[in-house]
């Protein structure tokens, strides 16, 4: 398909470097997790939205002879190409903000106290229910633009701030319309109109699941004290699996409640957070096929201990990193910032952070053709204004991303007057 005659081609040429997770089947773990293929003085050739070839500039003439079609060229001098980043855990479908709570937390209130007092997630539920479907679609599109500017080309987003039939389904539709991969977080919190978690789950599983399964790719549950317990999580996830959804869990965020044993028992795709995971959990996750999704911006934002990333990687676990972008526990949409935190706070290497935010994250969301610069993969690239690809992790909070390419088209480019390329031109 990528070599059909005619068609549109995009050539990114004269790149200082191109870096991609090296070979191996996803999810990568062990040695393979940190292995990066770097090409200096490189090009990437795309056609009809796919990567058709890449490599050193000296091979470009031959590559061009092997394909045809209209050719658009992009000057990559002073830039480094990495795969478009994949954010596999966001709560990007919300209305309103929690800036007042943010200030209260600064003066001593805890996240759990605010939640127990009816604030926290339930405050965002109120705002989200009032936004209407068009308002939600606007919000997700706006958040997508924010993510893209930091290099994200594929994103997952969860519902979970509706918790009624209409708003949950509207959230999933809004996420799809904005190009996101929707996850039904039907078990995020118990809304005030229900007496308890079991009564709410009776409703969610009979009234919402049959339609949610048509819109979502996965289901997620918040397994935590004050949210859903392990039996309730098992009930919810088992029903969602039977309806055809992949399974995710918010687990071990504040306390260990059996999320890792439940994830392995049910064959979940991932268990996310893991700030409170202990030795036994680390061993069990490492021995399983479940991916541990680490969310360092959330731990930082709530001033909690970081998840035991180094121990997980050393034990052989497959890991991904993500923003957890949401208004309460991680108001951070930048996977580039999270990649920096992965190195400085989680003690991953830049190569491990790259695999964790691309190919492994793509595995978590079931997108098998994104997250690498490889022939046949989607032509999604982030072009970094940097002489070395490791600036992705090194330039903490920097104005790093010059251009974002999605499906072989320029999806976003920094204003030219802001381009101050570092290094030789
Ligand atoms: O992943 N922990 C549960 N859910 C989100 C936070 C949602 C919120 O605070 O609005 C999280 O951190
Ligand atoms: Fe989350």
Summarize the structure.
The protein is α/β, with parallel strands linked by helices and about 425 residues long. Helix 4 packs parallel to helix 5, helix 5 runs parallel beside helix 6 and helix 9 crosses helix 11.
Report on the structure:
- The chain is α/β, with parallel strands linked by helices and 425 residues long.
- Strands 1, 2, 3, 4, 5, 14, 15 and 16 form an eight-stranded mixed beta sheet that branches.
- It has two domains: 126 residues, Urease, subunit C, domain 1; 248 residues, Metal-dependent hydrolases (TIM Barrel).
- Helix content is 35%, strand content 23%.
- The site of N-(iminomethyl)-L-glutamic acid has 13 residues, from helix 4.
Q: Please, what is the average pLDDT?
A: 95
User: CATH superfamily of the largest domain, please?
Assistant: Metal-dependent hydrolases
Distance between the termini: 35 Å
> Rough shape?
globular
Detail the poorly predicted runs. none
The molecules bound to the chains, other than polymers, are: N-(iminomethyl)-L-glutamic acid, fe (iii) ion
Can you tell me the CATH architecture of the largest domain?
Answer: Alpha-Beta Barrel
